[in-house]
Amino acid sequence: SSRRRHTRLQGDWSSDVCSSDLTTGAGYPHHVTVSNSTALNVGNGALATARQIAGDLTVENGSGFYQDYSTDDMTQPVTVLGNVTVNSGGGLSLSDDAGGGMKVGGNFTNNGTFTPKARTIELIGSSAQSISGTMNGGSTTNNFYYLTINNTSGGVSLSTPVVVTNTLNLNSGIVTTTSTNILHITNTAEIGRAHV
Q: Which residue(s) pair with 91 in the sheet?
């Protein structure tokens, strides 16, 4: 029989460990892979602490990366400087609380279950980025609630149809679509330029 393992972060994964260099040094992981039926509670004990991953975040089948585990809703974003990949059977859930979104420097791929809550995914790459997998859900999963494009070079290409249900903010970078990989803004959503 398989058992789900709940893992909590304790103390050393925070921005105050090495505040002079937020992308390297003690306290920051490079690549994070959540596997073996693990439910990773990212906000445990430090809900108001921004978290950062210097490389890629991968969530494997049967596992989850939670910014909203139980009552541990983060109020600061998680920044992933590399790619975010949610594999089939894996889950990624943003926070219920304001501020608990995610910034992504690489590609965003969802083949599992992505639960955006009412939070922002911000694409912050300095080279070309892509969105792929399943991102055209019509309910509360597998779509973007707030999507902010803030790519300084290369833009963002869609390799799948993408649904934005609340707000698409276009700060910087070109969004490239195709005749089948369209960007769909629902009838209740709006397009704007975010204020920074």
A: 64, 113
